[in-house]
Amino acid sequence: MPPPVLHHLAFRTRDIEELAAFYTSAVGLEVRQGGSKGRSIWLALGNAIVMIELADPGELQVNPGSMELVCFGISVNMLPYYRDRLLAYGVATEGETPYSIYFRDPDGRRVGLSHYPEVRSEMAKLDTPMTDKNGEIAPDGAASSRFAVIVRKGGRAKRVGHLLAHPTEFCAAFAAVEAASEDRKAWSELEHDLGDAFLLSPESVDLDSMSSYEQLFQFARGAYGRTALSLDGKQLAAIVFDLMPRKVLMDVEDAALLIGDLRLFYAFLRRAFAPLHAGDCLDVLGDGAVERLEIVLARAPGQ
Q1: How far apart are the first and last CA of the chain?
Q2: Backbone φ and ψ of 48, nearest 5°
Q3: What 3-state DSSP class applies to 107?
Q4: Strand pairing of 48-54 and 40-45?
Q5: Which of 32, 116, 126, 169 is the most exposed place for a label (fewest CB within 10 A)?
């Protein structure tokens, strides 16, 4: 069964004309027919709608400084255009990454404009020989960069780009292979796609080892018949603090690396695919997780 998709957003405000003007002029949304005259203005957002609605008297306003975010997708290479557009409208930006720009609307909502990394542009980096700190061409063994997996898979880049552009379709495909658990080939193919997408994500910049999420895939499949997308917090905790310490050779000092890498992976999942339990899984990997795993590893035989 395919998961829900975005139907509409409703922004409550005390000045619907001002807020609608902001989203049409600064952000570039278009007015769509609909809404109650004088009470709402509807703006087109792809197949969804942004409803600018008049707040009731005494209704709570946006919490000042809140980091809650609504983020609109834009085309690759369009960040400079939107940066100039916001500047022309007098909107101050409060943050920017290679793929996103953040600002506030007149009511103080945190808003973003973002795109996923372009697979082709990342692939272009592979044409440059890897060098060491002295500028010498690195040996073949140095091809352990975060893009090396894509090199080995060659034509998979197009598949990765497709799944990033169609996250709902990808989640539905994973649900299908879980239901047909005997189709190991399809399952493995989707896991490779997911791993490649993670390696091409901004979250993977600080990744220390590809083995962390690959091991997670194996334990999720073997112990629960699930993928990383559908694991809940309790299952992830059992894998990280019980199964991995017993079945994978790790030292106490490896705890911080493993937890850090898995945090990056689940941050990517939450942003790109919004799986149901991503928040719970990130909580499992949050404060105290490193210390908990260190204690488990210290008690393991041979330590």
Answers
A1: 46
A2: -110, 180
A3: coil
A4: antiparallel
A5: 169
Per-residue pLDDT of the chain (303 residues; tens, 9 = 90+): 567 878 899 999 999 999 999 999 999 999 987 655 678 999 998 888 999 999 999 999 898 888 899 999 888 778 888 988 998 889 999 988 878 899 999 999 999 999 876 544 443 443 344 344 444 434 333 333 444 444 344 455 566 666 666 777 777 887 887 887 666 787 888 888 888 788 777 787 777 766 788 888 888 888 888 888 889 999 999 999 999 888 888 888 889 989 999 999 999 888 888 888 888 999 999 999 999 999 998 886 554
DSSP codes of every residue in 166-213? -HHHHHHHHHHHHHTTT-HHHHHHHHHHHHHHHHTSGGGGG---THHH
pTM for this model (two decimals): 0.52
E-assigned strand segments in 55-163: 69-73, 93-96, 100-104, 110-114
Residue type at position 178:
E
Identify the CA nearest to 198 among candidates 180, 178, 220, 216. 216
Instruction: Report the interhelical angle of 255-272 vs 289-299 (nearest 10°).
Output: 140
284: Cα within 13 Å, side-chain hemisphere: 19
Residue carrying the six token digits 């898995």:
262
- DSSP β-ladder status, 8-13 and 48-54: parallel
- Report the distance separating Cα 103 and Cα 101, nearest Å: 7
Does residue 49 contact residue 8 with C-beta atoms inside 8 Å? yes
The DSSP line for 15-63 is: -HHHHHHHHHHTS--EEES-S-TTTEEEEEETTEEEEEEEPPTT---PP
